[in-house]
């Protein structure tokens, strides 16, 4: 595997999920694979789970791991081509990325969208420049439009938790939030679920439909109660408007998943990528109750990352 930026980089999704589950049983079985190999994890934005799980995944495979908060610890980065750098930026990505490629065998990069200009965000300019300029395999640690390591962990969790012999109904449910949130997790979840043996239903208020390139094939309902009927899994996530790009259009009253909402489902397991705003996106009662899978999801981030890094190490 030369890059992991979306589900389209994976030839056999079910096989990768199975590999993550095997690694969960024997996390140190491939400790010699990463010997004398270096993983660089570059963050332009905050992280808890992605940072720690990917770092640990590299260590479980015997890799040396370096982590850098490039936005705070690096030189102010210029990403536009052809500009005269007589302003505040100090180093161009053309040199910075190429230099990082000299030190690392695999690089992970996190770079969120700015949510100002849809075309700019959806062009994935920074991620593509890292792919072009580093010369080493690139793992997306969440880009402007997708969060593939999260989605792989989500699919691993659903595979583990689904009732045997039943194709689960999975509902991606929009949740309230106070500020504009990227589409990455929701886009990516929709894209991955459509490669899995599940029935995907997406529910969000009007004005919050995700880009069709991610949702085509899925049922999209603006009536949450209707969507929740007989659900086996409810994946809760906020996102800002795609149509009125980056805008918050409603306070989302009535959209938070509570025990009352869960009563509409088939005793659904509840998922969220975290961090979650308690009492706003998800109720305390659900998060602290028996249906919540959020900690197990976070645990599976480790084995998702390990499966991807293992594939990359094998292809070096
Ligand atoms: N879910 C997730 O990506 O968490 P972090 O932002 O803390 O890495």
UniProtKB/TrEMBL annotation:
EC number(s) given by UniProt: 2.1.3.11
Coiled-coil spans in chain: none
Positions of N(2)-succinyl-L-ornithine binding: 142, 177, 237, 277
Stretches assigned to the Aspartate/ornithine carbamoyltransferase carbamoyl-P binding domain: 2-160
Reactions the enzyme catalyzes: N(2)-succinyl-L-ornithine + carbamoyl phosphate = N(2)-succinyl-L-citrulline + phosphate + H(+)
Stored Pfam families: OTCace, OTCace_N
Keywords for this protein: Amino-acid biosynthesis, Arginine biosynthesis, Transferase
GO biological process: citrulline biosynthetic process; L-arginine biosynthetic process via ornithine
Origin: domain of life: Bacteria
A GO term for molecular function: amino acid binding
Gene3D superfamilies xref list: Aspartate/ornithine carbamoyltransferase (3.40.50.1370)
Residues annotated to bind carbamoyl phosphate: 47-50, 75, 110, 147-150, 273-274, 301
Pathway(s) served: Amino-acid biosynthesis; L-arginine biosynthesis
Residue ranges annotated for the Aspartate/ornithine carbamoyltransferase Asp/Orn-binding domain, each copy included: 185-310
Protein family membership: Belongs to the aspartate/ornithine carbamoyltransferase superfamily. SOTCase family.
Complex formation: Homotrimer.
Biological function: Catalyzes the transfer of the carbamoyl group from carbamoyl phosphate to the delta-amino group of N(2)-succinyl-L-ornithine to produce N(2)-succinyl-L-citrulline. Is essential for arginine biosynthesis.
Protein name per Swiss-Prot or TrEMBL: N-succinylornithine carbamoyltransferase
Organism of origin: Pontibacter virosus
Encoding gene (name): argF'
